[in-house]
Amino acid sequence: MAFNLFKKGGPGSHGKTGAAGTATAADLHDEKLKFEVIINSIKDGVILVDDQGVIQVCNPAAAAITAWPADEVTKISVQSVMTFVDEKGEALQESQNPFTIVFKNGEHYRDNKASLLNRDKKQLALSLDVTPLLDTDGKVTAAIAVFRDVSQERAEEAQRGDFISTASHEMRTPVAAIEGYLALALNAKVSTIDNRARDYLEKAHSATQHLGQLFQDLLTSAKAEDGRLTSHPGVVEIGSLLEQITNDLRFAAEKKGLFVEFTVGSSNSTLDATGGSAGGGKTVRPLYYTFADGDRLREVITNLFDNAVKYTPEGKITIGLTGDDKVVQYYVRDTGPGIPPEDADHLFQKFYRVDNSATRTIGGTGLGLFICRKIIELYQGRIWVESELGKGSTFYINLPRLTTQQAEKLQAEAAANPQLAPLGDGKGI
Ligand code: ADP
Fold first, then answer.
1. Whether the model pTM is above 0.70
2. 392: Cβ below 6 Å to ligand 1?
């Protein structure tokens, strides 16, 4: 019996024997039929494309997802069958097409957030893997795409995100009102209360502040996750931004007896792979420009600084700035308890808190560093921590650096079109 890839059940049929068809015992001893049985049974779309971009194999699930008739889909260009689009439904440029990338780079490509416009003009969310097949010279001779329609999962994720956003937004309002009334009750100018009531109300006030912060962080992290974090990027000079922030924050640290310093131009750390050596003898330019939203960067530094103050019982907090011609690197260093190495990689995940006596007594949500990472990734940057137990921690941020010429050009463009590119740090540079 000839075993046709599309013979039984047809594309999109998901019955017990449906898309997989049936195979006799004899079929399973024939090498070619064995291959067909396997590929026919897979519920993910599988497409084999040759080096001319022509589809050589397409399983029923792939035909169903792309909405192409099974018997038409082979021997035609993959570009006609798989139209990749961005979130807004606009066709991707040729250079962004996953197959183009794989044939160019010869490396495995994975995209969990791909979008495809199928033949019925329906936009689907895809989880996609494209793997190159290489000859002995390392040349790509073919590529295999394995993909799955994840539209439903993505819609459910968006709904969950919406629920968290709406709930935290709605809850912030009454919490702010409670916090306000508690503050009034604690204000000796407007209320008279005895010491015991003051003690209770102070505790209630601090718990309410914590709750308010939790709702605010939940809202921000839900937005960060589904890409709705507002961002108005512009040219930002990190040096002046950091100096300003250090001055604004210094008071909270000094109140706790911590020494605060701001250093520019030297670091005993090296840049990571994106930047080369920081201390490699290159001229350190006095101005460190980047393209980002200054208010968002302020949020990140404030968060790192607040953590440094919160977790450091005594010593010093240093805000530092360095870089080379490609990278701006800045950091917040403290002389606090440090972070165990097994926790360091997880700190930037949602709700992660190191489980030790400090975090058990010091309040927090475990969302701050997650939000910091999401913000820094918006600007193609990287954030990480280096720490030594008992000595302290340094949180580093690398952002792509603009040359002065690039910065001036972008500023001139922003000045000519103020509605298109508002300046991010509000300093008008
Ligand atoms: P939290 O609200 O708990 O501070 P974050 O996301 O800002 O949440 O930080 C996550 C965890 O990382 C904290 O709970 C704490 O355990 C650890 N951490 C963050 N900053 C420091 C620091 N400067 N020193 C020691 N531990 C820190």
1. no
2. no
